[in-house]
Amino acid sequence: MGNKRIFANQKMYMTKKEVDEFIKILGSIHSEQLVICPTAIYVEKFSQSKLILGMQNIFYEDSGAYTGEISPLQAKDYHIQYAIVGHSERRNILNESNDMLKKKIQACIAHNITPIFCIGETKEQYEMHKTNEILKRQIIDVFQGLKIHDISKIMIAYEPIWAIGTGFIPTEKEIKDTTQYIKNIVWQLFDVSISVLYGGSVNEKNVQSLNQIDVVDGFLVGGASTKPKELLKMYEVVVS
Ligand code: PEP
């Protein structure tokens, strides 16, 4: 039986009707190998299903005058177990800083929520063979100053920015080597053995072969995770 996991980043997709349909098809699955991160407004709806849930984003204070934000304390009311931290869309569109990401990670851990920390290089950096250097920088910028105990609770999602939503992905060898590189760096710098997911254009067609990459611990899936039948097929691949 496979042990990789799928994390569904549903972003700002789906209407209430589509969410109902999604829950009808997948809502009875209760498995550590399938985690749904819905648009926040649908978390309550999803919390009535059996699915394990994550947030797409989380704030770093428990409560207060922070218009539009959701705290880890509030997320816990809905049995949230994971939170995506530092997705490239939030870093680039909403200008999330390394300092914010560090605080978000600490807040998650304080509430027993596993942070899924996203890193990834741009197309230009990839073409200039700077991927490893960039990823190392992104890790150090946020992990430095965190307690080793906190680092040991983090999962990393390696998401090349140029692969997100484009249909282009690195070669399997590149994914394998980069994932191994990330694990080695975290081990060397912080003495922590960390889980690493791959994200970026994973779908029903390529999941079978990506699933063969042994060092990868699972997948962060965006667009394809909003189609329940496609997601179900992908889930069947990782559990088989
Ligand atoms: C993502 O943005 O986390 C992602 C993996 O997106 P997609 O699968 O659509 O490339």
How much beta, percentage-wise?
A: 15-25%
Spatial strand order of the main sheet: 1-2-3-4-5-6-7-8
CATH top-level class: Alpha Beta
CA-atom Rg in angstroms:
17 Å
Characterize the quaternary organization of these chains.
Answer: single chain
Distance between the terminal alpha carbons, to the nearest Å?
A: 5 Å
Number of strands: 8
Bound molecules: phosphoenolpyruvate
CATH superfamily: Aldolase class I
Helix/strand-derived class?
Answer: alpha/beta
- Give the low-pLDDT segments: none
Architecture, according to CATH? Answer: Alpha-Beta Barrel
Order of helices and strands: EHEHEHEHHEHHHEHEHEH
User: Percent range for helical residues?
Assistant: 40-55%
The CATH topology: TIM Barrel
Number of domains: 1
Specify the number of helices.
11
Q: What is the residue-averaged pLDDT?
A: 98
Shape category: globular
Explain the overall architecture.
With 240 residues, the chain is α/β, with parallel strands linked by helices. It has one domain: Aldolase class I (TIM Barrel, Alpha-Beta Barrel), CATH 3.20.20. 40% of the residues lie in helices and 16% in strands. It has eleven helices and eight strands. Strands 1-2-3-4-5-6-7-8 form an eight-stranded parallel barrel, surrounded by four helices. Helix 7 packs parallel to helix 9. The longest helix has 19 residues. It is globular. The site of phosphoenolpyruvate has 13 residues, from strand 8.
